[in-house]
Amino acid sequence: MITVPATLTEPFAREALGFLRASVSPAVVNHSIRAYAYAEFLVDRWDVRGARGVRPRALFFAATLHDLGLSEAGARRPDRFEVAGADPAVEHLLDNGVDARTADRVWEAIALHTSTGIAQRRGLLCRLVATGTGLDFGVDSEAVTDGMAADLHDRYPRPGTASALHAGIVGQARAVPAKAPVGSPARYLVEVDDLGAPADIPMRWGD
N or C, which terminus of the chain has less Cβ within 10 Å? Predict the structure, then answer.
């Protein structure tokens, strides 16, 4: 079973989750919590609990807030959605007493979470967030059984997760082309949409 950490019930976590729920759709909220659960699953699988670079609060913030770029505040920013999410996430953390060093590491993990091959080289926090996020879409998910995923989906359903993220990213990019620079996931999704073709993303557990 993919354990949902008790962290979610702590005051700092409730505050951040309240901010998340007020900012993005339920589909994105559930995806973000599942990504966090998968990241914690990887901490144990990789036997890195207590390792330097894995601070529980930083991992929670980076994983759960990684898609804030899909909020209305993120949409108003001209940056690609990853950076447009990292900025308000850090602003929220600093406003709520999180130290600047932790906030900076969270910013990096959020900004790089779609940068495959780069996130994995920027420290354990970035690697955990990028890999945990990918697991929710079935990327390199051999260690996750269908039963484990189904149990997590029972607690945090996936009501059109991929469709919601796809629509949000593409919609923002069409409204503000600067959000889809060459080589970005947003540019790829826009181009795939223009061709009327499906995105080449593993969808092991459906939408």
Answer: N
In this predicted model, what pLDDT tens digit does every residue of 65-116 receive, in sequence order? 999 999 999 999 999 999 999 999 999 999 999 999 999 999 999 999 999 8
Handedness of CA 126, 129, 134, 138 (dihedral sign): positive
Residues 6+ apart with CB under 8 A from 149: 2, 141, 204, 205
Task: Look at residues 124, 151, 142 and name the one whose alpha carbon lies nearest to residue 48.
Answer: 124
Burial 53-80 (b: 16+ CB within 10 A, else e): ebbebbbbbbbbbbbbbbbebbbebebb
Q: Report the interhelical angle of 11-23 vs 26-45 (nearest 10°).
A: 140
Termini Cα distance of the chain: 21
Distance CA 85, CA 145 (A): 31
Q: Does the predicted TM-score (pTM) go above 0.70?
A: yes
